[in-house]
Structures are given as structure tokens and as C-alpha cells.
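Collaborator request, handled under Task 6.
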Amino acid sequence: MLRRKDIGEADRILTLFTPELGKVRAVAKGIRKPRSRKAGHLELFTCTRLLLAVGRDLDIITQAEGVEPYRPLRDDLLRSAYGAYMVELLDRFTPDAEENPELYGLLRQGLNWAATAENLALAARYYELHLLGLAGYQPQLRRCVVCGRELEAVDQFFSTAEGGVVCPADGAAGGRRLPLSLGALKLLRYMQANTYAKVAALNVSSRTQTEVEFLLARYITEILERQLKSIEFLKLIRRGEAALAVSAP
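C-alpha cells returned to the collaborator:
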């Protein structure tokens, strides 16, 4: 489940992402009643097997069986913030009723990473990069998006408007280009070409991770023409976690 909205006295409209139908909305009748049997199976982040009855405007959820609750996303505030970010990112990149089993699979994996990963920031970067690829916005990391030449092993630039790396010669010509270090480029390429298990085993400096986070955030904002609401909440929780770590005896 991606989103929910209360209606009436006891009902709720849920925005769901499914492997067969893509993003759909359905009504869960009576879910807000204290004795509702469906409530525990229709929480945010939960993967659920549903039976839907076709309605005139919206389908109606008649049965719900939880498959994977991703419980750490409800028990840990930081993990919950990362899960909310992953869900909102997918929600913004997907139209209604468009089948995309690959994106569905990535969301399931992403929520599992948010629930279990030691390096949550690196897991989020991997998720972002692969979601961009599946949504049709894979950044060009091998050739200059201006001249088309293969990139050399030096610091480069990145163009959010053109969707990829710009070589030093063309990057110096001006325009909205972000500096891109060789280390950050190598990390982006490695994440793009390898499994999450291999990426999670990397020892990446905080400086490189921060650079890649900033670059991908700017690229995503350029595409969506807005900043996601969950970003500020995630930043707030991260600042709080960092402050606690510093003040701990």
C-alpha cells in the first residue's frame, strides 16, 4: 500500500501498487472500525494478497491476507522514514493502471532493504538509481551526453537537464552542470551494473555517498519538477539520529 485517505465514518481509500494492474485505488469498507479484520493486513508498507470486487467508481477490497509486514519499518523511525521515501518516489514516477512487474519487484526489494540494511543511505541510492532506469530515466554514465565521447577516468560534470555525465571539455562551456568526482562516478557505475548484495558489501566514504545523494536528488527533482514531501521528514530524522550519536556517552 502506498497511500491512504479516510472517507466517511469508517471507510478508507487505499492507493495500491500491484504487479498485474500497476497503481490502483480501492475502498476498504469498515476498516477503521475497532473490530475490523482487514485493518492489520492493510497497513502502510505491508505487502498483502487481496481480493477485489469491481465497483462503479472504485474497486472494493473484500478479502485481505498479509504476506510481508516489513515490521522494522513500523518499529524504527529512521527505517520508517526511508521506507516512506521509497514509497513516495515510486508513487511519483508511476501513472495509474500501468502494469510494471519490474518496478513492483524493486519496491518489494527496496522495502526489505529499508527494513534490514546496515547502510540505509547506500540502499536508498541503489533503489533510486534502479528506479530511474526502470522508469525510463536511466542516467548516461559511460559517454558524454554532449559530444558522445567515451569518458576518461577523471573528474567530470553531470547535467540534470540532459540526464547524464558531461566531459570536462564540454562541462567547462557552462550551463547547469554539477561537478562529479571520479569516485562518485565509479560508485554510480558500480551500482548501475551490479547486484545490491555486491553494493552493500562496499566500503564507501561518507563524502562520496553525500555527493551521490546530492546529485541524484537534483536529478530526481529536475524530472519531477518538485521535491518529495518525505525528503524533509527523512532529513529531520537523520539529523536527530546524528545528534543522539554525538551526545551518547
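The cover message to the collaborator said: "Residues 206-224 form the longest helix (19 residues). The chain has two domains: 3-68, 72-247. Please let us know whether this matches your experimental observations."
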